[in-house]
Prior knowledge:
Strand order of the largest sheet: 3-2-1-4-5-7-6
Largest sheet: 7 strands, mixed
Distance between the termini: 8 Å
Order of helices and strands: HHEEHEEHEHHEHE
Number of strands: 7
Strand content: 15-25%
Helix content: 25-40%
Low-confidence stretches: none
Radius of gyration: 16 Å
Shape: globular
Amino acid sequence: MITLPRASRPDEGDDGLFYQQPRLVQHIDLGFIASLQEVFRQYLPENATILDTMSSWVSHLPEDLKTAKVVGHGMNSVELAANPRLDEFFVQNLNQNPKLPLADNTFDAALNTVSIQYLVDAPGVLAEVNRVLKPGGAVIISFSNRMFPTKAVHRWQNSEEEERVDLVQQYLLAAGGYTDLRVHRKLPTGLTFFFSQQRDPFYCVTARKAAADIRG
């Protein structure tokens, strides 16, 4: 099993203070969202129970996707309360306490959208995500090249974009209990950059909880 040390950040100050001001803005463009929704349609079954980690006022789920329940997690209660797709939510600083207050084998899928770069112990958090997923449940981790530079971990900032894809896969392998790792990407180049809705590069790593617990 891969072991990764706890990551450091330029700003190790109180995350609660940094995120206390609601940010009701889009952090990714429409093309990125469309690419993400294509992955969601592939991995999220109808009437799924979904955990949206490190969420905000929008979950980017397709409007016509019926869900049984969506539980949101984040750092700002105002943002989470404004998210129309969440049936319930909780606020927790995963960098202080990665233990999720959720039961084992509960969710069909877990999402992390453009936020994985802020975790100082991403494998620890993903191990918890694995615990609360049902066997065969999907985790969908998407990211672009945007970030809050003071809060993104150094190893993320010091990596090229493709190296970040490898880093997320390392996180999942270090967490243990995942199988079927796959990479999805859509990169705007040439004329598509000027004539499409997508300017942000789209990267996504998906995996599934192993049917049997292979950690140890």
